[in-house]
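Dear H.,

Thanks for agreeing to be a second pair of eyes. The structure we're designing against is below in token form, covering all 201 positions.
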């Protein structure tokens, strides 16, 4: 390959990556607003200046596009928790909720798609089932470590607290999306977490 051909190939690759990223960003908005079933490939393609055939050059199907949207966003969230354990992990989760309050489109995406995904034939059903199991496991591990460190009350029911914490965060997201001026997601979660702590902590 000549040097000029190599430069053209690199330029084409860079443009392709940029266009994929643009498609993913717009797909987040469309799926957040209309859900997976309501959001169409045509709407996504139109939003980034492509035909449907052009979009399918980057993503082979609507299902693949959804999977990559979810994987990318979940990976970004989980990376914020890397390396933390015990109570520090729980605080990192609270920090993530604080961050989520700055990205309403992503919060709406998860609220919309997780509701749709209770249907077993939904393309994201397995993703959300596995995601909830994984999050329950991570929170339970962190709470057990916090309990061993004396950072939560000695009689804390870890399993019940794990499920309650997830339910609180998901419910807060919906209430916040409906009434952002009244519902303070980070403050409510922080108040819940404060009640897990032993006196003096």
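And this is the sequence the design step returned. I haven't edited it by hand at all.
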């Amino acid at each position: 390959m000549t040097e000029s051909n190599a430069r053209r190939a690199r330029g084409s690759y860079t443009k392709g990556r940029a266009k994929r990223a643009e498609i993913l960003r717009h797909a987040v908005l469309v799926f957040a607003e209309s859900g997976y079933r309501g959001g169409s490939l045509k709407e996504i393609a139109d939003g980034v200046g492509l035909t449907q055939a052009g979009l399918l050059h980057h993503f082979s199907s609507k299902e693949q596009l959804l999977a990559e949207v979810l994987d990318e966003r979940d990976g970004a969230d989980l990376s914020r928790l890397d390396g933390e354990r015990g109570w520090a992990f729980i605080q990192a989760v609270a920090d993530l909720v604080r961050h989520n309050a700055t990205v309403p489109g992503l919060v709406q995406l998860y609220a919309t798609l997780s509701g749709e995904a209770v249907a077993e034939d939904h393309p994201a059903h397995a993703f959300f089932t596995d995601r909830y199991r994984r999050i329950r496991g991570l929170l339970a591990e962190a709470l057990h470590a916090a309990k061993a460190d004396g950072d939560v009350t000695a009689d804390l029911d870890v399993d019940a607290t794990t499920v309650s914490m997830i339910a609180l965060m998901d419910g807060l997201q919906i209430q916040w999306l409906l009434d952002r001026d009244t519902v303070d997601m980070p403050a409510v979660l922080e108040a819940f977490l404060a009640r897990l702590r032993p006196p003096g902590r």
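Two observations from my side: The mean pLDDT is 90. The chain has two domains: 1-66, 80-201.

Warmly,
E.
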